[in-house]
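Students often ask why we bother encoding 3D structure as a string. The short answer is that it lets us treat folding as translation between two languages. Here is a chain of 36 residues written in the first language.
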Amino acid sequence: NGTGFGPMANHSLIMASYISRANAAIIDLRNLLLQG
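And here it is in the second language, the structure alphabet:
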């Protein structure tokens, strides 16, 4: 019974991509601040 797993797997993929994008943005901000 994998009916409840489809949306959950999709949601985790969306969260993973969002977290990686936020992580890249934070790294960019830190680089800008360090170069200041």
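Translate back mentally: The CA atoms of residues 10 and 23 lie 20 Å apart. Keep this in mind for the problem set.
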